[in-house]
Amino acid sequence: MSFNPLIEKIIEMKNPTVAGLDPKLDYVPQYIREKCFEQYGRTLEGAAEALYEFNTGLIDALCDIVPAVKPQMAYYEMYGWQGVRTFARTVEYAKSKGMYVITDGKRNDIGATMEAYAAGHLGLTDVDGEQIAAFGADALTVNGYLGTDGIDPLLKVCAAQDKGIFVLVKTSNKSSGELQNLPLEGGESIYGRMACMCDEWGKELPGKYGFTGVGAVVGATYPEQLTELRREHPSIFFLVPGYGAQGGGAQGLVGAFNKEGLGAVVNSSRAIMCAYKKEGCDETDFAGAARREALRMKDDINSVLS
Amino acid sequence: MSFNPLIEKIIEMKNPTVAGLDPKLDYVPQYIREKCFEQYGRTLEGAAEALYEFNTGLIDALCDIVPAVKPQMAYYEMYGWQGVRTFARTVEYAKSKGMYVITDGKRNDIGATMEAYAAGHLGLTDVDGEQIAAFGADALTVNGYLGTDGIDPLLKVCAAQDKGIFVLVKTSNKSSGELQNLPLEGGESIYGRMACMCDEWGKELPGKYGFTGVGAVVGATYPEQLTELRREHPSIFFLVPGYGAQGGGAQGLVGAFNKEGLGAVVNSSRAIMCAYKKEGCDETDFAGAARREALRMKDDINSVLS
Predict the structure, then answer these.
(1) For labeling, which of A52, A62, B3, B65 is most exposed (least CB within 10 Å)?
(2) Residue B306: pLDDT band with limits 50, 70, 90
(3) Secondary structure class of B279 (helix, strand, coil)
(4) pLDDT at B2
(5) What is the CA radius of gyration of chain B?
């Protein structure tokens, strides 16, 4: 239960970041794509193989300096079940390299259906008595619009398996305020209410660093809300998208952390995956460029924390 | 664009229902499970094969009397990529039998990520110039918590491919009111606001029966809200879960329909899939029992509409 394993890795590596694995085919170096298309054709399978080779190269280059990866399900589903197979293999590979895996699926449903998502993504699936980890990630992003019925089944799996969830609270996108910022009667915002629900749900998953196993997604693009939510919800661990590519800078992240420098893991996807393009290095050095960008990001964030 | 193809099937079959394909392994007749486990072992693959055989039997029995099926992604993801392959094959099989397919994924994300979901589930995926339908459903359920950034990419795909989306508005579960019923400043509920956002988004997808391509999920378990939303949002087509198994009866559905008897498609999952258990017939007649229950449900709903 809770994010203890993630927080321990963050402390050990002195690096509160997570590398997003959102592999659009355009991000994959040409030489990998060509090799896979030659072998499998311009098919979903060929694309999925290219993504897998790209991902494993990135994981090899990052696993000793970055505590976690966050594969985004959409970029795997896009390539059909073949893409989802690459997702499963990527989770397995990252785990084998000791990385913490956050599946970004923003899943949501109720009762038995949410149990199915919880079993598939974080827990074990029962096949006539055999207990099998279908995807086996450590944490899952979820959407709380359906209320407690949609969260309870996750809490049970998280308690049994030492896993956590991140609930969407204040997302990083431009239109996130359309609904999330609306004031309820009494003045509280919808995202503020959602954070309070996270506090409630989190009581079932206490953690030893003061953070529960029910975290929140809060965008780096809204530093004011980051700071406000950190202050008002000290036991919610944050997953923070929007650093770098989406425009949020390290200075705006300060408010996400507590006095001990804990409280958040900051995501970067494209900036790491496509570092080789920005650097202009040879594309066969994509993994080296990713590592250099990950180290730069680590230093950037640590510089504002100390 | 819009739900024209679904509404045409509903009119033609005089049946405003959709059969949910939420195949928990427990629902699958023993003889199918045993055959698949013998061939593939007690594995994710064995489970996935059993689900596929069950699904195709149901589709064969329903395709001339029920306009649509609604596979629930969670029950496929639960069995890993092998389960997702069964999902893909199920969509393909249902389409080959002329059925309209609503993927119940409650997907949500922003920008390029939502584009990836839209391409994968409803549109076409580009693989180096090849345009491939990864899953190829007709409609997708989505969660609007992230606002317009999360919906716009879907609207583009729906417009290009004659597809639709159902946005979660007032869900059927017990705790749906925790967030959805909260009153905003001015008194409007959150679900009411979400319905207004659906109206806005729907303007881009007008349909010839007066309904746009942006529908709403509204639970049969809340007949008052069904009636209120039908009255205030005449151009939103409803996907209505919660009939039967979740306790909602046909009488409570009346408010979901307009004077022409249109406006909603009502889902039933377990009652159809597990009809053979309730009937107590031989399990090899599971498909016949599903058909009998589907006809009973059709008559039940039509009886309150006329």
Answers:
(1) B65
(2) confident
(3) helix
(4) 85
(5) 19
User: Is pLDDT larger for residue B269 or for residue B244?
Assistant: B269
Which A positions 48-67 lie with beta carbon below 8 A of chain B? none
* The one catalytic residue among B106, B208, B259, B298: B106
Residues of B with Cβ-Cβ distance to A117 under 8 angstroms: 74, 77-78
pLDDT of A246 reads 56
Tell whether B144 lies on the interface with A, counting CB pairs under 8 A: yes
pLDDT, tens only, A115-132: 999 999 999 999 999 999
List CB contacts (< 8 A) between B129 and chain A.
42
Binary contact (B125, A79; C-beta < 8 A): yes
Question: Which has the closest alpha carbon to A80: B91, B56, B94, B46?
Answer: B91
CA A72 to chain centre: 7
Q: What's the pTM value of the predicted model, to 2 decimals?
A: 0.97
A268: β partners: A19
* Res. B244: pLDDT tops 90: no
Active-site amino acid positions of A: 106
Task: Name the CATH topology of A4-305.
Answer: TIM Barrel (3.20.20)
CA distance B12 to chain A (A): 32
Check if the beta carbon of residue A281 is closer than 8 Å to that of residue A289: yes
Whether B106 is catalytic: yes
Query: Which tens digits make up the pLDDT trace of A15-61?
Result: 999 999 999 999 999 999 999 999 999 999 999 999 999 999 999 99
